[in-house]
Inverse folding.
């Protein structure tokens, strides 16, 4: 039977799993691939080589693992399934992300530099692949650019909401003054969840059968990762202080949760801190308004007048006059505007002053 296009005919359509060097872990696909054709074998796309994880050595399951080699996909249970598990639904993604940010807004003592998390599909794929392994095999190696939190619970225990509450509850045993957890308890899920400089998040879960009953794996990946130590001394996950008081210049916005509690540093939605009126368009790079025809002024607040290019501010019954003409700020503003109090005067008149016409 011939294989898919690009695969050796002798292999047929049998799915193959390709490995990586022992020192590497998981790297998600960066390019599309054809079903039945995976890297590491002659005839397959060279651009995809090395993109699949190395499965842990498990006797009786397969042979020939090694860099640049392939082996037939094995029936379940297998350390890493061939296909990526389905991503979280849009609804669940929103729940996980919003609950993360809500919990980060509730830390005590208050955080002065806590960033708002944004969802990353790339991290979500990595978390989903790790969850699909049912947390078997080696855990992801610690790396400063990624932080991992994972747990395997009996099926039916609860969804991500219950898991995040469980992780956040670890904070009750965390001493912010020392940066350590009381007794022999663990607080690493909590400190990763509230690591201030983490800006991106991706999570995944997977239903796992097992000899002792079904279970469910939950995994979240954070970037950049937390839980750092210096010479054996843990670094505090955030800086204490009034909410948003130590946000960086690029994250000068302060995001409030629906109940207006706490505050998270975020990219300001309007860094210019201004808006254009009368359908004007704001250029964020220059913080200037481009006004539609008939309007003028910094905020497009003035209605342009045909005589001498003046503009009328309706709410103040005053004029915005061009250079060389009197305005509401001149010594005698009556030289500029005649308020349209009578139907016979539908617009103000901008009159010249200072000898210019």
């Amino acid at each position: 039977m011939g294989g898919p296009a690009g695969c050796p005919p002798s292999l047929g359509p049998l799915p193959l799993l390709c490995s990586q060097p022992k020192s590497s872990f998981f790297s998600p696909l960066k390019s599309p691939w054809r079903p039945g054709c995976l890297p590491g074998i002659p005839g397959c796309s060279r651009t995809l080589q090395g993109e699949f994880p190395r499965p842990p050595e498990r006797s009786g399951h397969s042979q020939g693992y090694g860099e640049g080699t392939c082996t037939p996909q094995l029936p379940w249970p297998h350390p890493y399934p061939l296909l990526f598990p389905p991503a979280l639904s849009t609804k669940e993604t929103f729940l996980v992300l919003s609950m993360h940010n809500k919990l980060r807004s509730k830390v005590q003592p208050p955080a002065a530099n806590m960033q708002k998390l944004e969802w990353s599909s790339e991290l979500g794929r990595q978390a989903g692949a790790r969850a699909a392994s049912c947390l078997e095999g080696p855990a992801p190696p610690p790396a400063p650019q990624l932080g991992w939190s994972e747990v395997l619970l009996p099926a039916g225990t609860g969804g991500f909401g219950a898991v995040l509450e469980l992780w956040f509850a670890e904070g009750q045993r965390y001493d912010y003054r020392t940066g350590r957890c009381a007794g022999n308890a663990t607080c690493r899920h909590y400190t990763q969840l509230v690591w201030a400089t983490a800006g991106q998040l991706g999570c995944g879960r997977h239903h796992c059968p097992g000899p002792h009953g079904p279970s469910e794996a939950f995994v979240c990946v954070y970037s950049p990762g937390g839980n750092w130590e210096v010479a054996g001394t843990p670094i505090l996950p955030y800086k204490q202080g009034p909410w948003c008081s130590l946000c960086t210049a690029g994250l000068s916005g302060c995001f409030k949760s629906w109940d207006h509690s706490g505050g998270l540093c975020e990219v300001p939605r309007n860094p210019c801190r201004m808006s254009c009126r009368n359908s004007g368009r704001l250029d964020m790079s220059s913080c200037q308004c481009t006004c539609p025809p008939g309007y003028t002024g910094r905020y497009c607040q003035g209605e342009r007048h045909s005589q001498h290019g003046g503009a009328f501010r309706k709410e103040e019954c005053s004029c915005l006059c061009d250079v060389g003409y009197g305005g509401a700020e001149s010594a005698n503003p009556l030289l500029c505007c005649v308020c349209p109090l009578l139907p016979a005067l539908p617009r103000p008149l901008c009159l010249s002053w200072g000898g210019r016409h």
